[in-house]
Fold this sequence. Notes:
Rossmann fold, 3 domains, seven-stranded mixed beta sheet, binds thiamine diphosphate
Amino acid sequence: MSKKKRKEREPITSFDVNKIINPKFLADLDNNELDKLAKETRKHIIQACSLYGGHLSSNLGVVELTIALHKIFDFSQDKLLFDVGHQCYTHKILTGRPLTNLRQKDGVSGFQKRDESPYDHFEAGHSSTALSAATGMAIARDLNKEDYSVVAVVGDASILNGESLEALNHLGQLQNKVIVILNNNDMSITKPVGSMSRMFRKMRLSPSYIKAKDSYKRLMFKTRFGYWLYRVTWNIKNWFARRLIRNNMFEQLGFAYIGPVEGHSFKDLQKALKKAKAQKRSVVVHVRTQKGQGYKPSEKDKTGNWHGVAPFEIESGLPSKPKPQNMRSWSKVYAHLTYQIMEEFEHTVLVTPATLLGSGLEDIFKKFYTRTYDVGIAEMHAFGLATGLALNNKLPIISIYSTFMQRSFDQIIHDLARMNLPSIILVDRAGLVGADGETHQGIFDEAFLLNVPNVTVAMASTPELAKSIYLTSLKTKEPVFIRFPRDYVNLNEVNGKELSIFKGEWLIEQEGRNNDVALITFGPILEQLKPSLPKEVTLINALYQKPFDKNVLSSLFNTKSVIISDSYGTEIGFPLLVKNALIDMGFKGEIITRGIPTSFIEQASISEQLSDFGLDCDSILALVKEQLNNVK
Ligand SMILES: Cc1ncc(C[n+]2csc(CCOP(=O)(O)OP(=O)(O)O)c2C)c(N)n1
């Protein structure tokens, strides 16, 4: 709509974001109206996150940017890729998906999802994939002789991951145009790390760069010779430019560069995006935003507590459900143990790839600052680094989420395992993870690791066994993976004494009667099962999923029915391998296996997910009782 026509209608003073069907209405709005829409959008995001939790800060930071993108581009045709995808809430709202049941079972996903909307052209959850995919889309578009823009939004931390840098390296030399929006809020989950991140910080704060560039242009345009020089002789211009202004990394790589742009100003954003759209080659639009913008507690946050939030009260900013009394997260249990171990054993070095806060490692980083490394979103590097440490007489401890460790599988096999290097890997959020859904499930590492020579894999059922496994691992000479779930344990148990155990040991927790039924399981669910488990049943705590305890396994030889239940890994991992081991032994009884299906499991609460697969306490107990009846 032209400015004149817009003037003829009454200005829009309020928006109901629940009623938005698609972003086409944005074309008619002026900047004042866009500001009002941004305000309503923020309110809706805060409201939804306060009820369901979610990635609050990242989303509040990109409200104007996302609205401006939808105003300048038509993403029913153009392609929009959000890197990680955790910052796509405004995009969802503008494309007819209010966040009324965000991240709930059968509700709106917290990430882009192609089957949710024709406006979602991409899916992610892990970081740093968007630039590679955008490059592929641009190549396909040009091969197909199609005409649309490919726009990738990537954060200043995610762009520093290896895959992003590989994509930039490739894209910079191609003719296929991609518009890269660098959303620079100078934050990862916590403060971003590394020397390149320091460079972005300088660029972000440096309007002098733009000034220098503009002055150069003005100087050249003053004379005919200068104009000719600027327009015609690209190489000479670059030669001059390199001497007159400091080219940034993106220009060096072959991209056009626009920015830094004020990311909360519709005027500046639209101007920059129009310019980017008109560019003939790939372009980086460097947008400066404030993470958490528009909600005081998240604006002030420098520790990352508002990056991903649990439900909270909007007024006070306090969690709406206080942490369960006397409970501690498994992450904190292992952080506590790590603190003690690092205090006692000086050859230990802790490495984490950008999940310091989630795994509760802040105190350890403060206390042992010469022996702790947050390497940023660099999971491959974390394992490569650990390899070097282990080769030079240090004991690396890597703290990582199961899902992100998928990035490091080659380093696990090729480096740590093949060279058989002493190392301890704390695998956080192993098993089902709940509301983050498909992209974040920690279910695939177990079966993978069981397949890798030299490695040991363990999961404790209680904090005292966690301590025993950890201490035993300090003595072993190979990589040990200690997995633990996204769950809480009773705090009273945390300071329990450690038991003396050996690598690969299984514990017979309960001797059943008449060799009727045995249940082999492991992890915290075993502890929850114990009080209600019928006394006739033998209960085996398979502390180590690799190696197996052959003696305990042989002791089950005459059992009529063996149930192998794994609530933290896929059915083709531990359950199948134990079943095969029993068959190899010549076991003649019945074997029933239960594990998480090898599928991509959508968002829901962890308890809903466990019960869907018959892996919660009630379902396991029902199965045990059924088997007891069958064999009697
Ligand atoms: C491979 C991988 N490692 C770690 C994470 C966890 N993670 C989610 S968002 C995030 C920070 C992203 O920072 P940035 O790219 O700057 O985006 P912002 O949230 O600041 O907008 C991290 C580390 C992830 N999603 N994927």
